[in-house]
Amino acid sequence: MTDNTNKINIEVSPAYIAEQSDPSNDHYVFSYTVTIRNEGEEPARLLTRHWVITDGDGQIQEVRGEGVIGKQPVLAPGEDFSYTSGTFMHTPVGTMRGSYQMITDSGEKFEADIPGFTLSVPNTLH
Length: 126
Prior knowledge:
Layout lengths: L7 E9 L11 E11 L5 E12 L4 E7 L7 E2 L4 E10 L3 E12 L4 E12 L6
């Protein structure tokens, strides 16, 4: 994209969920809160999501689906939408990245990249 017509800003805040995790069985649960902000000039609807989850052993899991948490939010210019979801891995450290497919009111489809972030049990990384 070369202009700001469809500018979508995405921020992610991950957290380790100790009470749902079982490290002795290599089961680590993480939540992540995503905030999607439309900084463009036209309303846009989130159609689909695509996540790439990579654990510490390099195993990749891809998740694709419609919307997020059962919704396909429409964001007017200047508006944001936040939601919290979760995942689990078999290692205490991993990464996530992905994209949302969006569509403008005028029918233009585009990808909004979700920047990569780290999922980590506290005190695992220095």
